[in-house]
Amino acid sequence: MKRSNLFILIFTFIACTASAQNNNFHFPKKQIDAFNKSAYQKICARENILPNSGGNIASSGFMQLMKFKQALHLSTKYFSLKGKSTTSNDTLIVTDTLLITGTYSHNGPVIIINGGFLHFKNASATILGDIYVWGANSRLYADSSTLYIPQQYFYQRSLVVIDGGIVHYHNTTLDHSGLSHNLLAGKNSYIEMVNVQNNGFTTNSVNSNAQISINGTNEAGEYVTMDSARLNFKNANTILLWHQFPDTSVINFSFPKGDTVSSYKFNKTLPGVHGVEYSIVADTCTNVMWGMMPVTGSNVTISNSKIRSIGLWFTGSDTIAVNGLVNNSHYTTFTAGLSDRNLQLDNCDVQTWSIYPMNKSHVDLSGCIVGEVGTEQHSSFTGLNFTCDGSGGYMWATDTTVVMAGYCSDVNAVRSQGNGIVLFAYSSLMGGYPSALNNSVIMVIQSNVQQEPVPLDNACAWYAMIEQPFNAYTDSIAAITGSAWIVKTASSSLMDFQSYRLYYQQNGATSWSNILTDSLHARHNDTLGIWNTSGFSAGQYNIKLVLRDNWGNTAEAIKGVNLMPKILAGIEEDVTQSMNCFPNPATDKLNIVFNVKQGRSVSVKLFNELGKEIYSDNGIANSNSFSIDTRRIPAGIYLLNVSCDGNLYNKVVAIK
Predict the structure, then answer these.
(1) How far is 201 from 222, CA to CA, in rounded Å?
(2) Which domain-ending residue is among 544, 569, 594?
């Protein structure tokens, strides 16, 4: 899909999810182009990034490996280092033989290059970085050792073995803080593991002519097998074998029954298997799970099988509609409604469906329950009214892609990374939290999340959320509370918070009216403004929050409010149990009494009927009472806002 069309897609999506009123939101082409340029530069100059990556390249499972596979098409000539092994800028570069025994620690990535040999023998080593074994006869051995590679978040660390590199792990423990991590084997590399204890699930990509041989492990992990790779497993537990079916493949196959495998083989010599070059052998293995990745253009029929996961790859440049896929389904006879391939399931159970747009493809998803959604390269994704239940991972965008999810629920995390953009709007995140990594942007709009979005690395996060009111009354003042902010890390060159506005509209109206114009102060779970409903008729209304950055972009959050006749509110509003104020109306002084423990910090604010903050004191402590001098405050109706320990208390007060 053309990049210009992507901006139209963003515009259209926001407009739809905001009741066709969100016509101001757009993401600037200039900045997107800058994101693209940055990504291209990284791929073309990969040798300058690897030593300093520090583990910041983080993706979901095998999609990070696909990104590595794309980016690591560099010859070892870029690392034509001579001489002895050295440490430079926290990077250990091994070009000769380095033997490590006993306790060892290194803070940064490790690169074994030009025939270098790094040997851990009876060692207890801590490595805070990725490991690269690059080039013919470059070797990493670990004998009777423990390699502790700590992670702050899942898929932070990777082992990359490429261009003929060799890895041997014998009688060794690999500890990644118990978190998922990556391994990439490509271009004639060889990895052997014998009696290996894993603490943390490994997601592996095995491509080109790479080989992996495993004999004895508690947890082998998942393996994406492609090209002419060769895999051999013996005495291994917990294996998810992903069978990639290329665009020219024709498959008519049944996976073994049960999860204990005495002897399993998959290669092109088997009847019904055409168009694949890799081979898989599994002997005496337990807890074996079957997965497949049919690519655009493939022709696949699977019968009488229990399938742990189907990951649909979208590798072209077309727009594909996907609907009706539901996790944990039994299919007697099923043909997937996909216009770009043939996928048929006969008497099969599928635990998880996952969606992976790649290249320049665009996927429109609706009415599905899937396990993971992730985009890479220059693809895009729009999802409405779907569930991502986390059984395959989580929801994410990387490279220079865009994920837009609306009216959906997500059980796991939502993440932007690379130079990607994630828009999570009018949705619910029930587990994990929204985060932005690398140079990406995450935008959480009117969505219920357990934790506010977090920017890391050089990233930026937006949060626009109207929390209250749900109900309000005519001829009164209602407090509008919530969050309106844009936060980025100190090193980020992305956008900053500029301002926010508030509007209201009665249902059925075609225009919006101002509540608050251009507040220059970001709000974090605070009072956004007050809504004066004097003269209003009862009925359904919408409140709109418009969040603006310093690049001229806006994002909009809309919340419905039921406006009821004031008579239902009673003659006198209830006073919160945590606060009392008197006299009301006040003349010279307004006294406020807090029902909180002494020593707690309390913030007090006063808003006029236009929503303008006319009084603020953010440092009240060591007292259960406070007074506001009202002699210089004009007569009128005000909203008193008290914040204590993350709780907000509001009271309408009058000043004579």
Answers:
(1) 8
(2) 569
